[in-house]
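Board notes (copied after class):
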Amino acid sequence: MSRPRKQKEPVLSGYRIVWVIVLFDLPVKEPEERHEYTQFRKALLKDGFDMMQYSVYMRHCPSEENAAVHIGRVRHALPPEGQVRIMKITDKQFGRMDVFWGKLRKKAEQASTQLVLF
């Protein structure tokens, strides 16, 4: 009788792991515009994005395929007006980012240690 094969653990590579960064500039002069802004921001937070800076949100994704799912959700939530940009960068590129708080240099954000189940 043959033994069951062990499944290989996925290899996480800094070149396969990606960060999805959403940058936006939305109008907020009218009450309806503020409502659309709030709905878009809430959709990002609900989908696991974290605020990096005002109007800049980021999300860690274990693969390009997973990133495509979250980009699709952002596209679905787009407000009718304003400008939204979606950028993907590898974990290696993200780790090389220079971050400053005033004149003090800080390390870039780390990926969450949240368990991701597929």
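Comment from the instructor: The first helix runs from residue 31 to 46. Strands lie at 18-25, 50-53, 56-61, 83-90, 99-101, 104-106.
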